[in-house]
Design brief:
Blueprint (H helix, E strand, L loop, with lengths): L1 E3 L10 E5 L10 E7 L5 E16 L6 H6 L6 E14 L11 E4 L2 H7 L8 E6 L5 E5 L11 E4 L7 H14 L11 E6 L10 E3 L4 H9 L10 E5 L19 E3 L4 H6 L17 H13 L2 E2 L5 E3 L2 E3 L2 H12 L10 H4 L5 H18 L22 E5 L5 H22 L6 E5 L2 H4 L7 H16 L1 E7 L7 H5 L3 E4 L4 H4 L9 H7 L6 E5 L7 E4 L12 E4 L21 H5 L8
Parallel strand pairs: 9-19, 9-20, 10-17, 10-18, 12-13, 12-17, 18-19
Antiparallel strand pairs: 1-2, 1-6, 2-5, 3-4, 3-6, 4-5, 7-8, 11-23, 14-15, 15-16, 20-21, 21-22
Helix pairs in contact: 6-9, 7-9, 10-12
């Protein structure tokens, strides 16, 4: 393909290759070459093309291009490629010598160049631009050597959640997890639209070319097999009917009883709106939480407070307001509930914030439903559990995310076993683990990031801007993924693992393309993942259990309303979730 250039410095970190006439080297190509060492050992050097350039040799001015083209001035076109080494065999860190011949690395040599030959458990992560498989080392995901995946990219274009679900599908169906795959669980929070409510439906827009790409990765294109959908109940609905739009079947409601709220100490999550915990009213929050935990509960999920039976969240708020603000101004508030040395202003701040939460969460905390306990969240019932929160107010979203995360974390901690694994997919990390403030949710996410590896709880987190997420959450992610970035965001220090050219290129990545960085490789790789074989929006949904190649009348599916798929045909990633 060419030879190492002698007029530019060659180092063990990068060097330029002059491309031979009649050949081309493009970005992301993998190359190989040799150097003979003085002791007779052959040093094999592998690398990835990170930049290419073309110039006129013999020109002095920009306008000389016209004269050279017309043959008036002598000159010729020179093409060169910048190589970033990925591996030295043996590990002798010397540059290739000028004039060294460079060739494309293919098949086994490519696996060696990208260190795939040393990976025992290879997880299909996508395809290269030349349609060759790219793998992740599962040891850096499941906690063996590292854990967690972090995905960054702008909304609507970077397809962050789509890639997260693709990685889950790969883990469940590639055989990489072995026998553990059957018991491995995934918890997915659906934070935008209804895009993740149809994972168990085949995708009507999947064509033969995309199906072929799955097979190139050793995967069979199909929807997720065992999916449970949980949605909040409709407001004011005495039967707790799930509040979903397009999907009507296979959805269960979720909520917590008043007794659960009190005895599981869930009150602090109502105040988990990314404000500094040094606020004085948090003293009242802690005191009230402790007192609620001591209340007597009933078999129906209600509690008794001062002789009153509390069945609704509104009644609980009223009772707490009465408890904390005595009607007699001469009667001091009970310090067991308010905490010591707390003024009336602080108490009133707590009451105001609690009252403002009433309309957002009263349908999520209740004991006015018959047999309410059967609606308790069960994260072990299905292989994949989707908790739909997209229709909730931000305050209610934080409450649900915090409570469900704590339940999952506590369950893993109580089991004392890292296997089977529990994956958690959460978008908008900047909202739940912001860099500059603290909250109960952030503390749980930090626990997951820092201790989850040993407990077997793995976070697949995503956000538009990694610069706004708590550093420790991002830094503890062994696998870093970047989709399309905002140009200003791409310049932030959080993307220092990307070479300068990759940062620039990340601002123009198309949907379905991601930069993936993993500890085994010194440079990130660009991968393209196949169009999802599961529905990513209601209009794409087939009936559950039907593969992409099986035809049926879509009008028979009550969960798959008809739609015009012209846009999807033009752009296979059109309409994908962010």
């Amino acid at each position: 393909m060419g030879q190492v250039i002698g007029v530019d410095d060659a180092t063990p970190l990068e060097f330029w290759v002059a491309v031979a006439p009649g050949h081309t080297l493009q970005l992301d190509d993998v190359v190989a070459m040799e150097r003979r060492l003085p002791d007779g050992v052959t040093l094999r050097i592998y690398g990835v093309v990170s930049q290419v350039r073309a110039r006129h040799e013999g020109a002095s001015f920009q306008s000389d291009v016209f004269l050279i083209t017309e043959g008036i001035l002598p000159g010729q076109v020179s093409e060169a490629a910048l190589i970033q080494p990925t591996r030295f065999e043996p590990e002798v860190l010397l540059p290739p010598l000028p004039g060294t011949e460079v060739r494309l690395a293919t098949e086994h040599e490519r696996d060696t160049a990208l260190s795939f030959d040393n990976v025992e458990r290879r997880l299909p992560a996508g395809l290269s631009r030349s349609d060759e498989p790219v793998f992740l080392d599962l040891d850096f995901i499941d906690g063996t050597k590292g854990a967690h995946i972090n995905i960054s990219g702008i909304s609507g274009v970077a397809t962050k959640t789509s890639y997260a679900t693709f990685l889950l599908y790969s883990m469940f169906n590639s055989g990489t997890l072995g026998a553990e795959a059957a018991n491995t669980k995934a918890l997915i929070f659906n934070v935008k639209g209804e895009d993740l409510l149809f994972l168990d439906h085949g995708n009507r827009s999947l064509d033969e070319e995309q199906a072929r790409r799955y097979k190139s990765l050793g995967l069979t294109p199909a929807p997720f097999r065992d999916v449970g959908i949980l949605a909040p109940p409709r407001r004011g609905d005495s039967n707790a009917t799930p509040a979903t739009g397009s999907r009507k079947q296979g959805v269960s409601p979720f909520f917590w009883t008043i007794a659960d709220f009190c005895h599981q100490r869930l009150l602090p999550f109502l105040f988990a709106d990314a404000e500094d915990e040094r606020q004085q009213y948090t003293i009242v929050v802690q005191s009230v939480t402790a007192q609620l935990a001591s209340l007597e509960g009933t078999s129906e999920g209600a509690v008794r407070l001062d002789g009153k039976l509390i069945r609704t969240f509104a009644a609980l708020v009223d009772a707490l307001e009465e408890k904390l603000s005595p009607t007699d101004p001469d009667e001091p508030a009970d310090q067991r509930w308010t905490g010591r040395a707390v003024g009336s202003g602080t108490i009133n701040a707590f009451i105001r914030r609690l009252a403002s939460a009433r309309r957002h969460v009263e349908h999520l905390v209740r004991a006015d439903i018959a047999d309410a306990q059967r609606h308790a969240l069960n994260l072990d019932q299905h292989q994949v559990t989707v908790v739909d929160i997209h229709g909730l107010h931000d305050r209610a979203k934080r409450f649900v995310v915090g409570v469900v995360l704590r339940q999952a974390f506590d369950a893993k901690e109580a089991s004392g076993l890292a296997k089977p694994l529990q994956f958690v997919v959460l978008d908008e990390l900047n909202k739940y683990a912001p860099r500059d403030s603290s909250s109960p949710i952030k503390e749980i996410l930090l626990d997951v990031a820092e201790r989850g590896r040993s407990l077997g709880i793995i976070l697949i987190g995503a956000q538009q801007t990694a610069s706004e997420v708590e550093r420790r959450v991002v830094a503890n992610s062994a696998i870093r993924v970047v989709g399309r970035l905002d140009p200003a965001e791409a310049r932030r220090d959080e993307y220092g693992f990307l070479p300068a050219v990759a940062r620039q290129r990340s601002t123009i990545l198309k949907p379905g393309s991601m930069y993936v960085a993993q500890p085994r490789l010194p440079v990130p790789l660009l991968v393209e993942f196949p169009f999802p074989a599961w529905a990513t929006r209601p209009a794409e949904a087939r009936r559950p259990g039907r593969g992409a190649s099986q035809g049926e009348d879509d009008s028979e599916d009550p969960d798959a309303p008809g739609a015009d798929h012209g846009a999807a045909a033009d752009d296979p990633f059109a309409g994908l979730t962010s």
